[in-house]
Amino acid sequence: MKKTVLTLAVTATVGFGTIFTGYAAKTEAASFSELNGKINEIHEKKADVNSDIDKANDKIKSIQKQQSDVRVSLEQLEITINETTKKINDQNNKISETKTEIAKLQDDIKIIQERMQKRSLVLKDRARSYQENGGAVNYLDVLFGAESFSDFIDRANAVVTLVQADQAILKQQEADKKELQQKQDKVKNDLAGLETMLSDLKNMNQQLAAQKAEKNKLLKTLDSQKAAEEKNVMSLKEKEQILSSQENAINKAIELEKARQAEAKKKAQQAQIQSKSTASSGSTRSSGSAGTASSQPHVAVSSGAFTRPTIGPVTSGYGYRSYDHSFHNGIDFGSQTSSDPIVAVADGVVSRSYLSSSYGECVFISSIVNGQLYTSIYAHMASGSRSVHEGQVVKKGQRIGTKGATGAADGVHLHFELHKGKWEYDKRNKINPSGIIPGV
Ligand SMILES: [Zn+2]
Asked: How far, in Å, from the CA of 425 to the mean position of ligand 1?
């Protein structure tokens, strides 16, 4: 049995070469329930995607809360660091004041030491004079050498005065030494205390700086987490959009297919009536727009359900490519002229028409052929050449754009993909167009 094709008719004016058969009538109900099942599947997927979006948004909120917490503690840290830095400066001032004090004390000590040296010289002189006169014993000689009693008194007084003066000098020396020692001890203690405090403050500031660095690092991590989550939401929203636009396109395609089937039924009934009354004249099918004599390049439209998407040679086929060890999800068509037209391979509804970072200017078309949903993709179209919009009904062979090199394309070519079913992110429904699309 010849493969019956239930093309997606748009208007009643199109001549249907397809004969409505009993086979189609039998499978009709089953096909539509299967297609409705696909739509339910999309609904479920959309619900999943929406719950993923909610989850991602919750995550973003929690990250934002964490970020504001970190920012608050960073502000507090900043305040504490400023306070500690001020304390360190104060401490440094005190230390330099103390050092000035120590320097001044050292000057005082020098003066005292000089005084002590002088005194010791006086004592040495005196000691020498004692030695020259036979030491302390000579005080007696001084006394015994008195010529009279009054002379003796004078001499005795002189000896007492000398002894007292020596004792006073010794006492003064002792006091000076003590004072000096105490001052030195006190200032040294002060300095040690100040230096300990300073080192504590410096330690504290180092710890605070480390905490600050850690918080900043955390903030950066949170920033990148948030960016990743936002990117996730973006891609989820894109996913949802593709699901929605595909759902709309499939719904529309089902409506059109139902209308086409009703129309075909009516025509078949009319033909039956006609064939009973008159001999069948037989309708011929026009193939494409061969009637218009134009020098513009155009794609010859095949008579089956599918037609070739463009002119130009196949430059890369479907499947594993040994030269780059990758799987080619579609077929590439190289350019034949400077503006090769790209046409819809089957009747259908445009489910996506947008600028993708990888596909470039691209169009997705949902078609129902023989009750089977197909999604065809046309990528890397010339900039500004995309001429169909989402939800638009297109006919097989209808121009939808011009060959280009937008998106991730090395040169001008059409990257064409065919999916049996709907387009999925993992492209699990991709099929080899060879054998389905004529001339590839
Ligand atoms: Zn390709």
From this structure: 17
CA of 440 to the centre of ligand 1 (A): 14
Q: Distance, CA 212 to ligand 1 centroid (Å)?
A: 51
Note the CATH number of domain 299-440.
2.70.70.10
CA 44 / ligand 1 centre spacing (Å)? 31
The pLDDT profile of the chain, 440 residues, written as one tens digit per residue, is 443 443 333 333 333 334 444 444 545 666 778 888 888 888 888 899 999 999 999 999 999 999 999 999 999 999 999 999 999 999 999 999 988 888 888 888 788 778 777 877 777 776 666 556 655 556 677 777 788 888 888 888 877 777 677 778 767 877 887 887 788 788 889 889 989 989 999 999 999 999 999 999 999 999 999 999 998 998 888 888 888 888 999 999 988 888 888 888 999 888 888 877 655 444 444 444 444 445 678 888 998 999 999 999 999 999 998 777 889 999 999 999 999 999 999 999 999 999 988 899 999 999 999 889 999 999 999 999 999 999 999 999 999 999 999 998 889 999 999 999 999 888 999 999 999 999 88
CA–centroid distance, 328 to ligand 1, in Å, is 6
pTM to 2 decimal places: 0.56
Q: Per-domain residue ranges for the chain?
A: 65-229, 299-440
How many angstroms is it from 193 CA to the middle of ligand 1? 78
- C-alpha 24 – ligand 1 centre gap (Å): 35
**Residue linked to tokens 């007696």:** 140
In 3D space, the residue among 365, 372, 370 whose CA is nearest the CA of residue 417 turns out to be 365
